[in-house]
């Protein structure tokens, strides 16, 4: 699957179209033995950003699947991956992934990743269930 094409999608898309894309990405992840986490997370980042622009919560079943996947791909030793994952968590309000993020041992992490995690936690703590809380 070529995730780079997701960057070319329109900024605003229908919920139904986004639902199809999310299901395709989830299906790909679940059926593929070795997924490039950076490319995958970048594609999911672009979909999540477009979902956020609908100003509506993602379908709960899809949200739970994405939440599970984000926990599986978390790698605090990759700034690029963590940048995508923290944004996806924020855009979609992924509670389980947010909890996993909070539980990461930050002892041996780079300063950049530590700051990214801390900023995300500070921004979302208490508001993770409502991704639009900052714009109201």
Question: Can you lay out the helices and strands and say which pair or pack?
Answer:
Elements: H1 15-31, H2 37-52, H3 60-73, H4 79-92, H5 95-102, H6 111-124
Keywords:
0% strand; mainly alpha; 61% helix; 6 helices; 136 residues
Brief account:
The chain is mainly alpha-helical and 136 residues long. The chain has helices at 15-31, 37-52, 60-73, 79-92, 95-102, 111-124. Helix 1 (15-31) packs across helix 3 (60-73), helix 2 packs parallel to helix 4 (79-92) and helix 3 packs antiparallel against helix 4 (79-92).
Number of separate strands: 0
SSE string:
HHHHHH
What composes the largest sheet? Answer: none
| Strand composition percent | under 5%
Quote the distance from N terminus to C terminus: 36 Å
Shape descriptor reads globular
Given the structure, what is the number of helices? 6
In the predicted model, the low-confidence regions spanning at least 5 consecutive residues are none
Oligomer: single chain
Mean pLDDT: 92
Q: Helix amount, in percent?
A: 55-70%
Radius of gyration: 14 Å
Structural class: mainly alpha
């Amino acid at each position: 699957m070529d995730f780079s094409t997701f960057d070319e999608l329109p900024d605003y898309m229908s919920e139904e179209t986004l639902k199809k894309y999310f299901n395709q990405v989830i299906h790909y992840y679940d059926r593929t033995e070795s997924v490039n986490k950076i490319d995958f997370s970048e594609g999911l980042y672009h979909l999540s950003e477009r979902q956020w622009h609908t100003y509506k919560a993602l379908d709960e079943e899809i949200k739970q699947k994405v939440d599970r996947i984000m926990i599986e791909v978390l790698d605090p030793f990759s700034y690029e991956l963590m940048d995508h994952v923290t944004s996806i968590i924020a855009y979609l309000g992924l509670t389980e992934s947010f909890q996993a993020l909070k539980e990461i041992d930050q002892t041996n992490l780079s300063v950049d990743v530590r700051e990214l995690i801390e900023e995300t936690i500070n921004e979302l703590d208490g508001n993770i269930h409502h991704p639009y809380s900052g714009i109201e």
